[in-house]
Amino acid sequence: MTLRGWVTCAVIVVLALVPPIVSLVDNAFILDMATRFVILAIAAVSLNLILGYGRMISFGHAAYLGIGAYAVGIPAYYEVYNGYLHILIAMSVSAVFALVTGIVCLRTRGVNFIMITMAFAQMVFFAFVSIEEYGGDDGLVIEMRSEFGSLIDLENASVLYYVCFVSLLLILYLIRRIVRSRFGMVIQGARGNEPRMQSLGFDTFRYKLACYVIAGTICGYAGALLGNFTNFISPEMMDWTRSGELIFMVVLGGTGSVFGPVLGTSVFLFLEEILSGLWLYWQLVFGVFLILVVLFAKGGIDSWLSGRRTH
Amino acid sequence: MNSDVLLSISDLYKAFGGVAATNQVTLDILDREVHAIIGPNGAGKTTLVSQLTGVLMPDAGQITFKGNDITYMPAHRRPHLGMARSFQITSIIHDMTVLENVALAIQAKAGHSYRFWRSADSDQNLTGPAMEALRGVGLEAQAMQIAGPLSHGEHRQLEMAMVMATAPVLVLLDEPTAGMGQEDSTRMIAALQVLKGSCTIILVEHDMDAVFALADRITVLVEGRVIATGKPDAIRSDETVRQAYLGEELEAVTDVPGSGSSGTVRHVC
After folding, report:
1. A185–B162 CB contact, under 8 Å
2. What is the pLDDT of residue B253?
């Protein structure tokens, strides 16, 4: 097995053992950290589907986290706690949002694409800021987490964690299948040489749009988990800086593999945690680190592990 | 030769900033002929091909293919009618393997690609015909290599495999021997000789050896205009063509063996 394979397995095993370890050392904070990590990893993995495999650099991916979270928060505000309904709303609203904005965004390239995805995300951000009913920029407290019958009780922190963890595994598997399928080959072909793909007979716009919608829908699901986890949602969750952080997680981990963004998310959150405890102006150091990664570690942690440079 | 018209171009016009790159081009391409389009640099050959493939849209005129008006049809729909093209500057997907490149060409014609689950790399319906096409151009040994680092000659072979993989009706070859050495170029001409008769080929080419070895008919473009169309012998001896373009280059190839038809010399225009 390659080094990359070992690291992947190790990370998954450690994540699977977090709740028992936490109950041993009796430190609930670790479980909170781990839950947040797993949810953000899902978001980063979904972003990588468009960013890494399709080179669609979306600077608005956090919008789906917000949409997903509000899909839990708003029904809960009206005392509707059906979890299946929450997830259905989170994913379908995200899909529609991705479809409508994607039709516009995907007509542009490069920096324009980055700016326009960011603009759409900011529109959602300001929309929620301005809706006083749901707390505006003060946010909204969720009294009770989504209900999934008696079997799954999200109020139990370990159960919530395992729901997130299993979701991450399933989504990693799903995306792995997608990138190796015929559809995935079209997306990667369009990344490599779009005019060629068109001359072969592929309507690349539609395939990219479908990919954009899949990524947004998955991230909307992550958002529903995030809303449940935090019990408090605010527009700040989908601020453009959050989208930027997701991009950094992906780039840091490496865009060349399905699992890379998980590693990127872990390193990102770890450094954030360590540095913010050390110095008030930790973001200064963090920023320098990120710049160095972008400049010198092309392909991210993943390519370093697999010993090869990717595109 | 079947004299049915496969592709018909009439009064095609395309200008860039007031300069006509394609100027009232009218041209019929016959079924199963090899039709070479030649002309000096800047004659508008690539612009013409781009309009035929839908990369550029003409300002005026009409293009019909098998009787269908395709003048403004999007580029990605034309391959489904049986048109395929190669590019002057090699256009492959560099970070995929040779086999995956050709498999994509097969996949493009194998219905929609909204198939999310099965692995494409292990799909015999794609890899089988793709290997076949690679064998056809002598590139099967490199099938599993990443396409990018291969040599220029191998890139051209791969490009040809991608064009031929789907058994197209009409093939547009934009300078298939561009940048090739004598040896590779001869091999490419031999490969094209094999194709001759099985499909219609529009050949845009600078290499006069290739043109006279392959073409059934030749069209000469100068400054966006068709100045002559005819059989190779007729083009070779045409005064207008000589003055405009061929000149001494032509003298050198007058005695090329197997240079298509040997009809009587006549003027065209």
Report:
1. no
2. 53
- What are the structure tokens assigned to A41, written together? 């990893």
Interface check for B95 against chain A (CB to CB < 8 A): the answer is: yes
Q: What does A230-252 look like in DSSP terms, one character per residue? A: HSEE-GGGGSHHHHHHHHHHHHH
Task: Say if residue A288's pLDDT is above 90.
Answer: no
Tens digit of each residue's pLDDT (9 = 90 or more) over B122-153? 899 999 999 999 998 889 999 999 999 998 88
d(CA A311, CA A306): 14
In DSSP terms, which residues pair with B202 in a beta bridge?
A: B35, B172
CATH, domain B1-82+170-269, list 3.40.50.300, 2.40.170.20, 2.40.290.10, 3.30.1330.60 = 3.40.50.300
Contact status, residue A187 vs residue A179, Cβ threshold 8 Å: yes
d(CA B122, CA B128): 10
Query: What's the ipTM?
Result: 0.86
Instruction: Decide: A94 and A72 in contact? Cβ < 8 Å.
Output: no
pLDDT tier, B260 (very low <50, low <70, confident <90, very high otherwise): very low
Closest CB to B119 among A181, A189, A201: A181
